[in-house]
Amino acid sequence: MPVPGFPPNALDDGDPKWITELACADPNHVLHVVRGLDPKAALEAVGAKPHLIQPCELPASKPDDWTSLPGAALGIEPGTAAALLAGQVGDWTFVYDDAGHTFDEATAALSASGRTAATSVFTINADASMTFFVDGEEVVWINVDDLVTDDLDDFPEELRAAFEAAGVVEDEDLEPGQFDYAVTMRATCALAGLTFTIDELRALPLIGASFG
Questions:
Q1: Which domain of life is it from (predicted)?
Q2: CB 208 within 8 A of CB 86
Q3: Closest to 35 (Cα-Cα) out of 112, 120, 141, 117
Q4: Cα–Cα distance between 137 and 127 in angstroms, integer?
C-alpha cells in the first residue's frame, strides 16, 4: 500500500523525516497536534511553565547521538528534562516532546473547549500508539500492535483520511492488513498537514521550553 500523502523526501524508513531529524538516537518521544490553539497556549496546555517558553532556533546539527535538536537549542542536558518544540501550520499547532514526558492527560487538555487534538507516542521499546480527542473526550485510542486496515472503517472521517494518507510502509514481517510501527506518527502528521521537510520546519516561527 503506498504512502500517498508524503513527498518522497519527507520520509525516513516510514517515519516523518522531520521528526527523525529532530529526535535523538533510540527516541522515546511524543507528537501532539491541536486545531485552533496557538503554540504558546498549546505548550502551556501540555504543562510547560509560561516563564520557560522562549523562541527556539534549531541548530544546524546535533552535538551527539543522545541530544535532540530542540534539546541542543534549549541547552538541555540529555536525561535531565524534556525539550518541547512548538509551531503552527495553518489551523494546526504541533508540540514535539523529545522525551515523552507530556503524554498523560495532555490530549484532553489540548482538545478542551471544542477543539480537536491527537497525540502519537513512540517509546524506546517500540510501543506505538495514538489518541484522538474532541472537546476533551477520547474518541479513539489506537495501539499499532492491534491495528488492521479494517479498523479504519470505524474511525471518524478526518482520522480515517489521515490513516489512508499515511498508508503502510512495506515490511516483510507484516501480515496482510497490518500497519507498520511508524503509522501513527505519519497519520498524526497527515491529520495536521505536517508533511514538510526539516528545512521547511526551520522556516517556521518556533518556540520551545524545557519540561520536567
A1: Bacteria
A2: yes
A3: 117
A4: 23
136 backbone dihedrals φ, ψ, rounded to 5°: 80, 0
Cα–Cα distance, 83 to 25 (Å, whole number): 15
Spatial separation of the C-alpha atoms in residues 83 and 1, rounded to whole Å: 34
In angstroms, the CA 19 to CA 56 distance is 16
Cell numbers of 54, please? Answer: 522562549
Cell numbers that stand for 16 in this block:
516523518
CB atoms within 10 A of CB 8: 6
pTM for the model stands at 0.95
Average pLDDT score, the chain = 92
**Please, which pLDDT band fits residue 148 given cuts at 50, 70 and 90?**
confident
